[in-house]
């Protein structure tokens, strides 16, 4: 039998946490043969609620759940962690400026980066879910110099899954029949969901859809604005779908994608001309524990424009918190 791995989750008693933890513990993230120890971090005010969530986790009697740590101590949460899902963040409150939101979160993610650096396993795999996810990933990495930047990812998978779902609905194809789709850039409304290389049952998606206007005027904005549409309908932000995307991202990273594409927010290494040291959504393939950005794609003018817009936003976010990176 496999030894248990340690999975740290921050913001564990929030709404994403409430969907996420049960699926990690049931083996959906790392495999049905991989026991886990959950190390759950919350703010002091939420520890009581976290206790309730932990009681429920125990009440599921998951065979793979070999232990739960509940704590408000960031060092304890990341101790020996093999995986870390950074979900907890400061939400935007009424009247708060975007710059203030960036700074408040920069504080959280710099502290957590330091704690990961001193306490986690050196090959820990970190997924940033808390927004602004890409810039939070950059900050975390900055303060965790012992961890390879390639091991700190921002979550683009929810956008990716939203895109696949829209394409399936439009064309009547099954989700699994849609390949080579990707979301580039920031996890924000400037992201670029790209169907240029996408295949549906092996056929060029653009010719199957046969309506470029729908792609530009309907598909792209629907995916970009999906978060707001969920809030408008549900009165709360996406939670179960966000948790599902986090499970998918970690699953594919840990176990590989068998050559298929997915979208990871990873440090730019300058590919496709993207500024280095922003965390950018790219099409990737993953093999057990590692990934590669898909290379050699020929970007059309439309794509270049879209990439420039989302890159500019990320550079602006980086500038807004630059003073905190010293
Ligand atoms: P909730 O407000 O329900 O839960 C957040 C939890 O984090 C709370 O329980 C809070 O006590 C805790 N927390 C806050 N600061 C903390 C800290 N410093 N250390 C430990 N715990 C802390 O939010 P939820 O709906 O779960 O969303 C969490 C984050 O995910 C938000 O930042 C949200 O914007 C982001 N999202 C990111 C998505 C993505 O695709 N990357 C999509 C969904 C979601 O909007």
UniProtKB/TrEMBL annotation:
Binding locations of NAD(+): 11-17, 105, 129-131
Keyword annotations: NAD, Oxidoreductase
Enzyme Commission (EC) number: 1.1.1.37
UniProt GO molecular function: L-malate dehydrogenase (NAD+) activity
Organism superkingdom: Eukaryota
An example Gene Ontology biological process: malate metabolic process
Keyword Phosphoprotein: no
SUPFAM superfamilies for the chain: LDH C-terminal domain-like, NAD(P)-binding Rossmann-fold domains
Residues noted as binding substrate in the record, renumbered to the chain: 92, 98, 131, 162
Oxidoreductase listed as a keyword: yes
Gene3D superfamilies assigned to the protein according to its UniProt record, in alphabetical order: Lactate dehydrogenase/glycoside hydrolase, family 4, C-terminal, NAD(P)-binding Rossmann-like Domain
Domain Lactate/malate dehydrogenase N-terminal, chain residue ranges per copy: 5-152
Active site: 187
All copies of domain Lactate/malate dehydrogenase C-terminal, residue ranges: 157-322
Function: Catalyzes the reversible oxidation of malate to oxaloacetate.
Entry's family note: Belongs to the LDH/MDH superfamily. MDH type 2 family.
NCBIfam families assigned to the protein according to its UniProt record, in alphabetical order: MalateDH-SF1 (TIGR01759), PRK05442.1 (NF003916)
HAMAP family reported in the protein's UniProt record: Malate_dehydrog_2
Protein name: malate dehydrogenase
Species of the source: Planoprotostelium fungivorum
Taxonomic lineage: Eukaryota, Amoebozoa, Evosea, Variosea, Cavosteliida
């Amino acid at each position: 039998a496999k030894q248990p791995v340690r999975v740290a989750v921050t913001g564990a008693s929030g709404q994403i946490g409430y969907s996420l933890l049960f699926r990690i513990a049931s083996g959906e993230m790392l495999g049905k043969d991989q026991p886990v120890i959950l190390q759950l971090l919350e703010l002091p005010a939420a520890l009581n609620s976290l206790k309730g969530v932990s009681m429920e986790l125990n009440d599921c009697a998951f065979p793979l759940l070999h232990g739960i740590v509940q704590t408000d101590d960031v060092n304890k949460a990341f101790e020996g962690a093999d995986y870390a899902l950074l979900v907890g963040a400061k939400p935007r409150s009424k009247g708060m400026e975007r710059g203030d939101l960036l700074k408040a979160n920069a504080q959280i993610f710099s502290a957590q980066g330091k704690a990961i650096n001193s306490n986690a396993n050196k090959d820990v795999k970190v997924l940033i879910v808390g927004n602004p996810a890409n810039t939070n990933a950059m900050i975390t990495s900055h303060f965790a110099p012992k961890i390879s930047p390639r091991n700190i990812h921002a979550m683009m998978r929810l956008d990716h899954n939203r895109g696949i779902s829209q394409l399936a609905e439009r064309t009547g194809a099954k989700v699994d029949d849609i390949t080579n789709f990707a979301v580039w850039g920031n996890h924000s409304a400037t992201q670029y969901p790209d169907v240029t290389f996408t295949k549906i049952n092996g056929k060029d998606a653009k010719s199957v859809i046969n309506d470029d206007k729908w792609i530009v005027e309907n598909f792209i904005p629907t995916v970009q604005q999906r978060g707001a549409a969920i809030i408008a309908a549900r009165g709360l932000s996406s939670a179960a779908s966000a948790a599902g995307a986090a499970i998918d991202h970690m699953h594919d990273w840990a176990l590989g994608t068998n050559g298929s594409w997915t979208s990871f927010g990873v440090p730019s290494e300058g590919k496709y001309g993207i500024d280095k040291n922003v965390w950018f959504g790219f099409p990737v393939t993953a093999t057990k524990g590692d990934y590669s950005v898909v290379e050699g794609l020929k970007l059309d003018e439309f794509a270049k424009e879209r990439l420039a817009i989302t890159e500019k936003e990320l550079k602006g976010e980086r500038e807004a918190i630059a003073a905190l990176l010293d």
